[in-house]
Amino acid sequence: MTYAKKEHFSARFQEISSFSKAFSHPARLVILDFLAKERKALSGDICEKIPLSRETVSHHLQELVKSGMIKGVTAGRNVYYYLQPQNILEMEEKFHRFLRELAARTISNEEGIFES
Questions:
Q1: 42 inside domain
Q2: Could you give the number of structural domains in the chain?
Q3: What is the pLDDT of residues 62-77, one digit of tens each?
Q4: Measuring CA to CA, which of 9, 29, 33, 76 is 20 to 30 A from 3?
Q5: In 3-state terms, what secondary structure has residue 51?
Q6: Strand partners, 82
Q7: Residue 86 belongs to what domain range?
Q8: C-alpha–C-alpha distance, residues 79 and 73, integer Å
């Protein structure tokens, strides 16, 4: 059996990975889109819009909560889910900075490689 051993990777890479994982399933994208339109929603509201079981929707909500993109707030027996726009913008910047760094290093390392 293999183990992920996340502790071997920097906090930066773990954070970017968590953010990326949140986008790895179309249901999560639909949930994010729904919350952006509705501003807040119960999991039951979300289940009505997505053709998945309550358990599956709950799993996706928990992944989004772990990524910091949404927050669940308890009100009595209900949990309302909200987008966390500041967290989303911060992670978007970190993710794009990482991609720009990769592209810049690749371009500078490839200069002259393809010339005959």
A1: yes
A2: 1
A3: 999 999 999 999 999 9
A4: 29
A5: coil
A6: 71
A7: 10-108
A8: 5
